[in-house]
Amino acid sequence: MSQQTFVLVVVINLLGVAGIIVWHLQGRGRPTERLIAQIVFFALMTVALVFAKIMPFHFDAPHLDGSGPAVVAAKILWWTHLSWATIGFVRIYIVLDGRPREARLIQDLLVAVVYLGVLLSVMAFVFGVPIGTLVATSGVLAIILGLALQNTLGDVFSGIALTLGRPYVIGDWILLADGTEGRVVASNWRSTYLLTSGHNQVVLPNSVLAKQSLTNVSRPDETHQIMLPVRIVPSLPPKLVAEVMREALDNCNGVVQDPPPSVSLVDIDKTAIALQLLFRVKSPADRSPARNEVIDMVFRHCMAHGLEIARPAGGQVVSEAAPRDVLPSRSRSIIEAVPMFSRFTPQERDFLAEHASIVAFDADQVIVEEGSVSEKLRVVAAGVVVLSMGGEDLVRLAPGDCLGLRGFFVGKPELHAATARTRVNVLDIPRDIFARMMIERPSLSDDIASWIKETNAAAAIHGGALVQSGMPREVLREEMRRAFGAA
Q1: How far is CA 360 from CA 63, 88, 398, 441, 470, in A?
Q2: Do β-strands 357-361 and 262-268 pair in parallel, antiparallel, or remain unpaired?
């Protein structure tokens, strides 16, 4: 070997060692810089090999001048850098493709193939090992291992098929034919991990997952449709009953309004009008809260419109309805639906119902203006009301919810504007009625103050609390008594 060739071999070894040091110093957090360094060092080593007239794809007999170990080391370093550069390209492609997590299995497989190919190449072109004989010998061993690891290999190849087919990605919510459902949180060579709505982790072997029919709830988007059957006593025409149900769905804050919910009339007989309520939620995890809210709204709107929930089909009558002359008045029924009035005595609720009046508002009409101080406590009797702040809609109120609480009880300007979304009936209760009741029963202010403190946190979520969060109940009670002239 000439002096020039020996110098080039030494340069190749130095470049290879320097490339390894730079590769480790850059760390795993800089894949792009790593790839650039690998390409640069690999290109310099290739140029040096060409000038040294050393062919890495050809086995050369050992040199008699003692330079053989240096040539072997140069070839090994060149093949090592070739494998790293190839793996770097694979990882950069997966990152640019936007799916580094779900493509981890394919990445690991390609890395294994690259390392195996480089190992065989080094054995054949550097050390002159007959690869054909080695492969033939290892084939028998591969058959034995394949039979012993049949189930494991089935999981591995099923995982590869699932990764290539991409029926789901990490983060999707899937539903299996056996009823198992959950969000995909991880996937590896053997198993796929689901996080269920009960916050439990289900581990599914890939071979089992590949054999089942699978519904990807997250595609094309994660909105999920729910069907709720309802039976209503036919006291109104079916068209009007359907309108009440649409109003109840429109009143729900946890229901997706675009596309809008729908109501279908299914059946009618002497005992009931059967309907199906179809609505969507933002994700499968919201199904239970949304269903609870819809059921609550259906009940409220049925009460507001004088509708009665029918008994199940084929159900037996266990009690007769109350006589008409003992049924509560409309105002009394509305008051019974307000949580605050549950602290009042029956006589006080009768007194409120006697002096309250029902006022109607058309759609888009302002009921309570933002910044106003209301002299009346207003209770939604029927319809849908939208609370807004600064022109932005915050929450929808249903029958039984109160308006004007902040101005009515503590004399401060309202933080929200209340606007009728549909035609709305409101039960108005004058301030002087509450003042008379507080004078007759001073402890009533304690009951109301306790309710306001309990409601305060929920009110703060929608743009501001009714009173200062740190205000003691005793201070609030005294302010209310002064506001109502009962101090």
Answers
A1: 104, 70, 15, 32, 37
A2: unpaired
Q: Which of 180, 169, 253 is nearest to 213 (CA)?
A: 180
| Long-range Cβ pairs for the range 256-261 (8 Å, 24+) | 256/223, 256/280, 256/281, 256/282
Answer yes or no: pTM beyond 0.70: no
DSSP letters, 197-244, are TTS-EEEEEHHHHHHS-EEETTSS-S-EEEEEEEEE-SSS-HHHHHHH
Could you identify the residue written with the tokens 């061993």?
141
DSSP 343: G
Range of the domain at 180: 167-216
Cα radius of gyration rounded to whole Å, the chain:
38
**CATH code, domain with 202:** 2.30.30.60
Residues (pLDDT < 70) of the chain are 1-2, 60-67, 92-106, 132-151, 314-329, 454-473, 483, 485-487
Based on the domain organization, do 183 and 202 belong to the same domain? yes
For residue 271, the domain's CATH number is 3.30.70.100
343 and 471 together in one domain: yes
